Amino acid sequence: MPWFxxxxxxxxxxxxxxxxKLNPLIALRAAAGVAVIVFLTLWAGSAELAVASAFxxxxxxVATFQRSWRPRPVLALCAGAALALSTFAGYLVVGHPxxxxxLLAAWAFASGLAWGLGPTAGVVASSTVACMLVTxxxxxxxxxALAQAALIAAGGLVQAALIVLFPVRPWGERRDxxxxxxxxxxxxxxxxxxxPGASFDPKPLMExxxxxxxxxxxxxxxxxxxGGYRGLAERFRPVLASLADPVxxxxxxxxxxxxxxxxxxxxxxxxxxxxxxxxxxxxxRLPEDALDVLQVPASGPVLSGPARKAAMRxxxxxxxxxxxxxxxxxxxRSIPLIPRATWQMPARPDSVEEADVYVDPDADAQPAHPVQxxxxxxxxxxxxxxxAVRTFRRELxxxxxxxxxxxxxxxxxxxxxxxxxVLPPEHGYWAPLTAVMVMRPDFSRTYERGVARVVGxxxxxxxxxxxTVLAHPPxxxxxxLAVVSVGCMYLLMRTGYAITSACIGAYVVFLLxxxxxxxxxxxxxxxxxxxxxxGLAMLSYALFPAWExxxxxxxxxxxxxxTGGYTIAVxxxxxxxxxxxxxAVGTPAPGNxxxxxxxxxLDTRSARQEWDQTATRAGAExxxxxxxxSRRSATxxxxxxxxxxxxxxxxxAHLPDRDAKPDSGAEEYSRALAAALPDAVTALREGRTPDxxxxxxxxxxxWEQEADLPSPSVALRTADLLADxxxxxxxxxxxxxx
Length: 738
What we know:
Elements: H1 3-15, H2 24-44, H3 47-64, H4 72-93, H5 97-113, H6 119-135, H7 142-165, H8 172-194, H9 203-211, E1 213-214, H10 216-221, H11 229-244, H12 255-280, E2 284-285, H13 288-293, H14 305-323, E3 329-330, H15 340-343, E4 376-377, H16 381-395, H17 401-422, H18 430-438, H19 443-471, H20 475-491, H21 497-514, H22 519-543, H23 552-575, H24 593-619, H25 631-652, H26 664-686, H27 693-705, H28 714-733
Parallel strand pairs: 1-4, 2-3
Helix pairs in contact: 1-19, 2-3, 2-7, 2-20, 3-4, 3-6, 3-7, 4-6, 4-7, 5-6, 5-17, 6-18, 8-9, 8-11, 8-12, 11-14, 11-25, 12-14, 17-18, 17-22, 18-22, 19-21, 19-22, 20-21, 21-22, 23-24, 23-25, 23-26, 24-25, 25-28, 26-27, 26-28, 27-28
């Protein structure tokens, strides 16, 4: 993509306005935290002190809006403490310009490395640099600096106290995450009715898993509805796909396909009803016609073979989804969904987080004693300290995008600060402040935010300047207007960065109006210094980039390695259902083989998420693939990998019982895949075509073993689809003749 086109695309993306769910009560609470600090310091102190102290409450409030599953009071307190520390550290050396520039660069470098810990840590760390730039110019003594730092920390304390005293929809975000996962599976079931090969985006399930991590105290207070549905949503996915697939399920035409469509629609209805109940914290309300479908027909089973087995599992899972709510279920009359033996069966818990053993919800299984569920544990901040240290060490390398981002931030902040000191405007710190808040580790977000920041600031300060000229508000009125502006920013934060920047621009103009700053100086200086900081941020990425495009092959290789491990783990369950084999390549360790499947699936999802992020960012970059993958090859390779994961999911839906007979064909196929996988991953990284010859040879021998059977087994039919997906991947990444 040419530079001009790339800049145009990122500019349009940065200026776009997204429809987002608004939370007025939460925005009002956060704005109240800013108001408390501003009006108290304005009443008890001075206008200058009110301007500076507002930064702590403002930034702490921003931290609580970040995408994080940690308790919001903890985020506010951590942000306030970090802001106070940066303020005091900056004051200690602000009297020595050279030393302060060095400290500023080092602090900015550390804030850049913080992006390796996640977006929330990166945003909070960036705000500490901005706080250091703004507030160190105010105190005149060490005691004054300590008081200023204490006021900034008090802003975080006020925000945390308001969250505790005035909770708004407790557990609401976790309810939404779980409900979104259930709704995504319901939508998948509906799409499978018309497209048996429909793909499923696992992002909602990954979000639900992140939301399920709680502290021991939260686990004791967690609503009952949030404790059992996620595992059910995970188990629905392969059963739905297996039932709809024409290779391992029902034929595409005929009475069986109609029955499959009815079951998929009924399952989607039940999942939507449970999602709605979870989201609202109410009882599950099911329509009677859906329950009529989810029972064995009076005339006898319509489906047969693997399709009937998948249907019985789907019926059992649907009943488990209703029972898992532990709340009353409203129906017009009592209808037995499935035979009594299956009705009493306990739901299989999630194999990683909830239990060490499980009962397979097959129609022929017998009831077993339920296992006491466990919760996903969220580590404390103290536990994460060594993790952060290891992350910093891992990112301290020249090839790391995070390290290159940290170097860019340090250089741009230092240069823009020096320029701000040399240039005439009084508030020269706005240039480095803009740069540090705009810069992100990737090209697209940096340029999107740079353009949005300049345009939003132009609109915001222009509007606020007009109001100031016409109304000449006194200090308390300016403080009230500043609080209104920040409240609008909290309310509209998720709609787009341009709108956020406009609200911040107005907030700054009104806030500085408390101290009597001239509107003309505030508006004009902020506009062109903001443009300077944003321009330097975008220029730095052009001069010292960390392109994602050359990383595509590595991300694809990681995805193949993880998905191949998932496939091998599933095949091993057929090769050794009891999970007793150990020591051989491609066989699970002793214990629960399905735990190995679950862990491999999580690795696959993580690798796919890395690929998706890299591919999305690479698509916006103005560079050629330079030894990586072209856009067409990347699209074809992604399609092949999605197919590989979907086919493995089909096979997972038909895992054998522990007492089933081992399948020697599956064992040989698994060994061949395990042997070929490392070389294939290396070939992808080096730009060569993977060789799947041994896998095809093992598949041919497996077909010979089952030649005398009336019909091939589900595992063999699925293995054939796996081999086709592997060949599609090889064709997609094969070097093209020039």
